[in-house]
Oberon PHD finger domain-containing protein
Amino acid sequence: MDSMDIDTPDQSKRDVPLRLVLRPVKPLESGVGLPYAPEDWPNPGDTWRWKAGPRVTAKGTFLDRYLYPPKHLPGLTPEILRGSSAFRSRLSLERYVRQAFPQADVRKFFASFSWVIPSAYGMVQTQSIVPVYSSDEDPMHESGSDIVVCKAGNDKCGSLMPPSETEPLPAMPCGICCGEPNFCSDCCCILCCKSVSLEHERYSYVKCEAVVSEGHICGHVAHMSCALRAYMAGTIGGSIGLDAEYYCRRCDAKKDLVPHVNRFLEICQTVQYHGDVEKILNLGICILRGSQRDDAKELLNCIESTVIKLKCGMSLENLWNDDTPTIWSDFSDSGEAKENDTLQSLQDVTPIGPMPFNHEAEMHKHEEEIREVLKALRDAQESEYQIAEAKLRAQKECLSDLYRQLEKEKSELSRRVSGTDEDSLMTNVLKRLDQIRREVTKLKDMEEVAKGFGRTPRGVLEEYFHLRIEE
């Protein structure tokens, strides 16, 4: 979309710009003054800031735009700005102008700049015409023909839902992943770039709501399954150090996942399919497994016990029946009372025979153990590789120095120096050759590490790699 030159209807007045050049902008781009914010209003030198939102209409213009007034203006109460530092709608801005500046010409004010901002990505479906309101038009008129679209083409994107009065702070401007034409931070996983699902109250993904700057949150989302596979969720040791938490790759903030998983039990009570309930609860087990926190351990016990009931054939109707004993109803009970409740619940479920073996829960446990073992093995192999590389390259440099010394001594010998000097030089050359042969043999022994440290002779590891192997 090219820039558009728009003549204003009243060019005889100096306080109205003669032409507005509407430069298309990118999502979440911001700027100062014209053409998308007033200048020299209400006083000379007063400049307003503007910012485009993430959502684009089918006309190729931004549905969301924000206007930041100068801080010294009167009457900028939290009620007017709805807890933010910017005006988010023309209606709220009009109300403010009429209240704070009753003598101002509201139509003239809106005619001095363009409220509509064209998108740099152009039209989505239909031909786009970017209007600039004149003093003869009603700047408060909302076009009912604007169709809200998602950058990723997801018709179920959360950004397409009407904003509520309790909506969180806007997401921060992001020029990295959000700069991609088909990536939407509201509905695309930051790890796999695929759309998240709103099914079952959005249990399957997590949104980072960390405040990263004044008036802005991170706002990026990620599938819980992707985060678990990428070691960015759950309980992970090492430098990240997660304990039933989520680590956002975009802003490096951590989010507690216990409240997120705690909702799973409530969500499951509204799910009608047995398989979906197990899927939701198993995800909760993966998130909480291995946590050292007491609240996470208690919640994990509750979910695992619920899975046992499902495995024993209890119907969903009886599972959530108020008359059926539940172990998640009171987290303040003692551990002994919880254990008794659990045993009683299992006895109610299984009238005959011993308590069933929770195969799936055990498999999840083994899966986590194997993942930790493989991670430790990968780290150990990486460490062994670095040690071997350093020692082998050092041995290569040693041989290189010896070869240079040999060439120098052979060159001196070739000058045919007579007498004692000739014998001395010959002796040096022979000694250097013996030294090179020893170092070459050493290198061959060191190359045994190609089989792996576990299959390398102990003496080689201790003598050449300085690794002491315990019995």
Notes: Residues 1-18, 123-146, 322-340, 342-357 have pLDDT under 50 and may be disordered. The chain has four domains: 1-149, 152-227, 257-356, 371-464. The longest helix spans residues 359-413.
